[in-house]
Amino acid sequence: MVTTDTTLLADRLDKPSRPRHTSLDDSRGYRIFRVVNAVLLLGVVVVTLYPFVNIVAQSFSSEVYIRTGQVNLVPRGFNLDTYKLVASDPAFWNSYLNTVIYTVTATAISIVLTTVYAYVLSKHRLKGRGLLVGIAVFTMFFNGGLIPNYVLVNGLGMTNTIWAIVLPNAISVFNLLVMKAFFESLPAELEEAAAIDGLNTYGILLRIVLPLSKAVLATMILFYAVANWNSWFQAFLYLDRSDLFPVTVYLRNMIAGATSATSVGAVETNAVAISANIKAVTMVLTVLPIVAVYPFIQRYFVSGVMLGAVKQ
Amino acid sequence: MRTKWKRTLLTAVAGSLVVSLAACSEEGADAGGGVNLDGKKTASMADYKTGAQFKATEPLDVSLLYLDQSHYPIKDDWLLWKEITQRTNVTIKPTVVPYSDYDQKRGLLISSGDAPTIISKTYPGQEEQFVSSGAILPVSDYIDLMPHFKDKVEKWKLQPELNTLRQEDGKFYVLPGMHEKIWQDYTLAFRTDELKRLNLQTPKNWDEVYTVLKAIKAANPDSYPLSDRFEAKSILNYAGQTFGTQAGWGYVKNTIWNESAQKYEFTGATPEYKQLIEYFHKLVSEGLMDPESFTQKDDAAIQKFASGKSFAISSNAQNIINDYRPNVSKIPGATVAKIPLPAGPKGDVIRGTRLESGLMVSAKAVESDKFVATMQFIDWLWYSDEAQEFTKWGVKGTTYDKDASGKRALKPEVAFGGMNVGAPKNLQRDFGFQGGVFYYGGANELLQSMFTEEEIAFQKTMADKKVVPLPPPAPLNEEERERAALMESPLKDLVTQSTLQFILGQRDLSTWDAYVKELEAKGSNDLVELVNGAHKRYKEKNG
To answer: Does pTM top 0.90 for this prediction?
Structure first.
């Protein structure tokens, strides 16, 4: 068992030093496992990919085919008019721009705060380190609740400003702990050598530690950026002006608003259902940037998270 | 070390809890206030009365919780805003909340004590949860400031309806939208060409509906003549009225008023409810109604109707125009129309209320020196004939014209609904009129001014129907409301579930008594007792 585990781990870490084929790899049980594994994962791929492809297909289809349920993987009644229509809506682009601004600012703030916090926590000689960890972990399990949070943010004068979006939850405790583990895995000798050469604490962090942490930084940026891009609730709570709404609020109002109008039925008789292909186009345009960026950052992704996991 | 900071933290948490609890109870204490309006009359009109145009004597800002619909997103440059300010000297400061999650944010803002002065788009009943917090103004105390509101209540005899809004303290907390007449929009729509082909008369009651469906089935053996949408909640609702009960969309609370016995009963256990279930069970078991009616998505039902697999479907005026006519056009010669709501065992009746969604006023407003002006403004914008026409049709000469006979028509460059299709501007999107926050209810003439001829004819037949009297108020106090809330939804779930099983034949109707026993086990009798107690108490207190 132990051998299998380390072999698998070595495979995942791409360490070429291990011989690729041992007798255990070829055992019958392992082969069956691989087949089952492949089938299962393929199933997962289909389940996750199908709705996505379906939405993309809908976005290029004409309304009649969607309404009659004829669009699956390939667009029917191909048209680009809906894209032109959505793209010509200034409200959409305004909220899109807001999302970009919120995401960039929030990610920058989060990365700075998380890095600094995690670096401090990685130093075992720090007094009161346990308390600092405790404060962070406490927030994973307890929070003030919705209304007190709202009263707080409002009392600080942050409602209807970008700060209400980017400051609360700036530090994700999970990310903080991953980063802390990564920093702890860096050899202490490296920093000692830098200190002897005359660097102070900040110099060590900026010139030695961070350049060595690109992988984990990229991962953190990815985590934070995706979370911020998709974030809807903060904006919904703290923003009262439509010119400040991010694209997620725009999208949710379009989808949930339209569906609840039709399902309630008795109430909003003059509600016009937003056509299915407009919804699809907006969804595609909203996820596009994340989908485009993901492959480029993903190569850091595995190594970034894994690096902190095993102490050398 | 470790235990020490843990203890400090615990103390801090406990301390803050105590503080916040104390703050809460303080807030609750000073709820309710007298009707002394001295020092609150800044900017108000001394001689404001019915028919008067409200204009604040000095500029006034009023904050408003605004429900933003995605198909006409709010714009700052709407003519609506400019015109309101010009006419009333009031500037509305909207807090914009997306339609998708309006209820949640409304609750949050009210609970945090940060609600805007006017909290719009609140359906009667939705205000109950906020009453005990003291954050909402008991508007019934200030009705004298609202001449247009009072005028309409008197003219349209709305007092009994208003009484249904009263809470335990005898006051009401929501200013409802008001219709002159009950507006019944939903009914069955039939493929009228098929009726004509088979020489069938338009059915006038549910027995005739059964006969007609049977005749259609005989001519089209492979079809389900009726395949409904809205998960059949609509048909159960409008049929239920004529069976003397409440079902489907109409099944909001578990209790129903029995006029002859003068007490509340458990809706799902009444003989009327059973009769309704038996009727629909008959339709399903004889293959006249598609069993999928109760579960399928709207689109699937529309598809069946559009492709000629079914011949009847629930509909409102909009559905006919938007969903059925365009889609059914693939079948040559196909025509669709709503039939007048069929009469039932309880006669040619409709049950309903003329109250609509309305608005709440924040309790904080009464502390302002401009309180009277604010109430006058609300009265004018939401309850005067002039403003109701304005928020529906826009500005005369700009968005619409009115001829000598009083008939209105949109300007050719302005489109709305089925009118002036293809015109460059839209009454809702580009001008802000016809918005759900400002326009609802009003005089029948105004309501029907945008209806199609066909719909006006339909409404004429509906106007002849007898209206079932309203149930008397039975407001629960806070403790009772909590107890009732615990019973309401499990009971409702059981009723809904069993209704479906009975109708589909999965459960035999001979087990009805056992079903009633199950309801009793879940507390149906306790609930009825609770409501009857509240009704008795209200009657003794308020006559």
So the answer is: no
